[in-house]
Here is the input.
Amino acid sequence: MKKIKTTPLAPQEFEVEQISENEANIIAYPFETGYAISLAHPLRRFLLSSSVGYAPIAIKIEGAKHEFDSVRGMLEDISDFILNLKEIRFKLNNEVTEAEISYSFAGPCTITGTDLNNDEVTVVTPEAHLATLNEDSTLSFSIKIAQGIGYVASEDVSDNLGEDYIALDAYFTPVRSATYKIENILVEDNPNFERVVLNIKTDGQISPVDAFRNSLEVMYAQLAVFNSEISIKAPTTIERVEESPDLKKLTTNIDSLGLSARSFNCLDRANIKLVGEIVLMSTNDLKNVKNLGKKSYDEIVEKVQEFGFAIGVDLADDVVSALKKKIEAAAK
Here is the structure.
């Protein structure tokens, strides 16, 4: 006889399978039949439509007035140059949301994404081709880069541009693809429960785990409107944070990272006990741990990434608050 239920089974297992720096599988189970796709599909939509990224919104090229112009000594005409520029993915440094960056090159040379790195911006597609200059050519240009979501047409940004700037269509989304598959999983003697595997690939502006975390925040914010109209018992912020898979992993002992003895001992002598303590540190703080060499630093960064996090990543305020309390308790 089929067991009669009054509430659906809530999934308890959450895993992050790090495939590469820019690709990960987010896995959760077990779901009741039909529940997995009900959650996976909107999360996929939020990943593709609401992830924050950076893109060039305008360009000014010395000696060129419009996108059908050309620059003496440059193999590409301006339209091809712009198409190449759109394939280069930027990330503004120091939490800046908009910047104007100028460049100047003299031939002969081939300009790629790595040549556009500087203190203000990091290019996450370093091998992408931009232009080829011959020996008597010079190229000077300025790019306006902004932070945003989704797609914005060039006519929507053209009003605020300076003189001689060419407006560009901007594709901000840093998520290259988001797909999911639903698998059956056995719970006790019932094979009809489900597991969802959400595969996320990004362009490097953001990690897959951070993209997933952001999509959850957007989803929660969209659903919050119903709480003001319908009286339901929702979990408190503290309860929700305490049950967060992220918090559970962040409060795991550093033993779980599988570090070498040298790296582990450096952290242990610095009284760093939990994974979350490392995640909250800046890269400089970690590098300044006493007796921690470059090899150990690189190992710790890699192991933390394999665990689903990054050094200095921005965590939600409520998670940070709960994590700090856990760290204080562990230190006693």
The radius of gyration is 24 Å. The chain has ten helices and 14 strands. The mean pLDDT is 85.
